What does this fold into?
Amino acid sequence: MNCHGENNTPDDWPAGESVILVGHPNVGKSVIFGVLTGHYVTVSNYPGTTIEVIRGRVSVDGRTDPIIDTPGVNSLFPISEDERVTQRILLAEPPHIVVQVGDAKNLPRTLMLTLQLAEMEVPFILDLNMADEAQQRGISIDTTQLGQTLGTPVFCTNAVKGEGTAQLVTALETPRRSTLRVSYDPEIEESLLAIAPWLPATHIGARYVGSALLAGDDEIATWVTAARDEEALAQIWQIRDSLQAHYNRPLSYVLNEQRLQFAYRLADQVSRQDSSAGSSWGETLGRWTVHPIGGIPFMLLVLYITYKFVGELGAQTMVDLLETRLFGGLINPWIAGWVHAWIPIPIVQDFLVGPYGLVPMALTYSFAIVLPIVSTFFLVFSFLEDSGYLPRLAVMVNRLFKTMGLNGKAVLPMILGLGCDTMATMTTRILDSRKERLQVTLLLALGVPCSAQLGVILGMIAFLGPRAALIWGGVIIATMLGVGYLSARVIPGRGSDFILELPPIRWPQLSNILVKTLARLEWYLREVVPLFILGTVILFVLDKLTILQLIQRLASPLVVGFLGLPAAATDAFLIGFLRRDYGAAGLFALARAGAMTPDQILVSLVTITLFVPCIANVLIIAKEYGRRTALAMSAFIFPFAFLVGGILHFALRMFA
Amino acid sequence: MKCPLCGYEFDESELGCEAECPLSTDCQMVCCPHCGFQGIDPNSSAVVGWFQRIRKRLRREGSPEVQNPPGEKHAAVPLSQFPTGHWARVTHLASTRGSRLQRLSALGIAPGSRVRLQQHHPAYVVQVGNLELALDAEIAGEIFVTAEGGNEGVGSRESEVGSRE
It folds into this structure.
């Protein structure tokens, strides 16, 4: 998974040569991208996976052209930031060809975007993807007739299975512009004609630029001012205002409405839906997953299966095998013997195999404890992602999040946070208001454990049984609700609308799950293991300089007195500042060694769960919202985590 | 209300309560002015009111058909009050917020589109063409629809799920 994509700008490509993929969210642009370039990019069954612009190369006509995968858009009159990105790319340079990837089973909606591309006068081909799902629902589309009406090639593909993609590649060689135009009301048509002379000459069609200006698109307005002058813009605004006086709705909506009705008529002409096709198992299951009553046991079932798989198979069976047998029984003694025999320098011996040594700590923690746990969790998570369950989960927990002033759309980044908090923090861009973005970022940093961390935590809970699991879950959820509720009142601004697209439930493809799991594991090994090593080195140095003992003594009132934990837990919290799963792994090792009572494990677990997820997350917060916000959040979260842990400690003692 | 003993119908202003009764104000008892029978007013109970509201809501969700006779022009209702499981035609959107109108229309909801409400809780789920959207109550209340003649596309299974809600 790409956690730290660079901020690409469209400027660094040769003009006029690129292939640009455009389409609605969750229609399979990334799959098509993978097919065209032969490279894998993260593919999921939920809208908004591609938040960064992804680039690759595709061979067209004997050359290799750059190809750009853009974030999904609902309209080329942007509302949100990611839609803006796609619009910018299309405006920035004359593309060689645009490939619109559309959903075959939602033809009218797909055509709405097609009509905008036609008015942009960019050469494009229309790819109606997910043709199999359309077929299942009894939809038949006459692509030849649609192609003739549009004046551009139209294909049906089922990209996941690679059906129809060969034709698509061939079609890239013969770009064509569409001749189809929406017929608006006469008043609007007149205004578009009146605006045309004031527009700068560009590769983008005047009808698109004109209608974007009528819709009040600020970015296009700035662009016109830059290319012409203030005078032109003033004239345009005057035309728009007199047109607006005709309608009692914003022009942006009037234009959309007329375009949609045009699209509906066109779709009626070229497609038929056989209504006798019954609902598939996916639709039936999909309905149950958001059912007000049936959805809850389903949610619990998903949780239970995850717990069984990760907590028992991963954290117990596999960790036993790897830590106790392989590392504890074979690798560690063997390396220790080898080091003692061949390297006679005591400090190097200590650095490699001492109590804070690389092998017994960094390597054992990462490969014997965390790796088996996260592998099992990544498998489950990839399965859930591809099945389309996650947005439905957002619907189920909508009510809960509403109490903290967040709507269901904000739930999506929270659930993505279960994958990677850093990536989820970047996904907060899909939210419409800054208030929500900040709130979700704070809650992600505070309470949502990422997949690696959740795995280790689930593994520890498996030691303790259901009572501890309930207390842990209850404390974390109550804390999140409380902080969310308060932050909704502290952070100014208003929340955004909850309009969420629910993708159909699909049976995931095994190959995609495996590929994703592998990609995540690679990310984990590359990003996390170096941090584990760094943490171990820091502990080693502190230990050698006897600062560690000093810190333990200084922190003793906090760790031993306030939290009631053994002094050795201080080490785990120290490295927890780097990554909370590393800290959790330290606690896990302590727990397995029998150094903590069940209540102590529970308190330490709650405290480490509320830590900031990792250094990378802090850096991303700083990048997205500024250093002061990142600092303020950290300054709140760490003391707060200890406070909640302490309160739990006293509560447990009182009720014991 | 109607006295359960003698059948006399009376309203609150004629309650036959004794003025010196320690419960005479703010109690849930009612006394019949005709025969003096004391009973409980079920409408004053919060619990009963709560159950009645739930029952009403369940009925609304599962009600089989509120269709007017064909050919007759009928008034548009907010989608949030339309029975689940039936196709409807959007007549207008009552929202005044530009961004909301723009987003709904970009997703295919505008006058003339066919929509079907699938459920009310925990969020409104609406089918537009072959796309499913989850919406807030507030937004669902701003989409005005009329019942569509005929019931094409509504399989028996959907009605079943609808009535269980």
